[in-house]
Amino acid sequence: MAYMIYINQVTGQMEELNDKELDDMILKRVMDSRKMQRVRAGTSKLCVLCGIEFLEWGNDPWPLASEGWCCDRCNATRVIPARLKQL
């Protein structure tokens, strides 16, 4: 099984792709570039914690990140517990 390293254009993180995923790499790159176009146009946001595109209002990710927005899921599962631990 061959692996290829792919740098996600949205999150900037490296991902390993197996043979099956390698076939879908071109589609993945197109989808990533379209996602970035929507973010730049202001029609959606990217969560600074998980890298997923979201359309809702957005939440302050402090104390896990100092800038950007996080999605409702990360806010509920990661940000709020981190804030409670600081109390």
How does this model look, in words?
The protein has 3 helices and 4 strands; from the N terminus they run ββααββα. It is an alpha+beta fold and 87 residues long. The chain has a two-stranded antiparallel ribbon with strand order 1-2. It has a two-stranded antiparallel ribbon with strand order 3-4. The model has no long low-confidence stretch (mean pLDDT 83).
H-E order: EEHHEEH
Which outline best applies?
globular
Instruction: Give the overall pLDDT as a whole number.
Output: 83
Strand order of the largest sheet: 1-2
The oligomeric state is: single chain
Helix content: 40-55%
- Through-space gap between termini: 48 Å
Q: Largest sheet, if any?
A: 2 strands, antiparallel
Share in β-strands: 5-15%
Total tally of structural domains: 2
Instruction: Specify the structural class.
Output: alpha+beta
Rg of Cα set? 15 Å
What is the total tally of β strands?
A: 4
The number of distinct helices, counting runs of at least 4 residues, comes to 3
Question: Which residues sit in consecutive blocks of at least 5 with pLDDT less than 50?
Answer: none
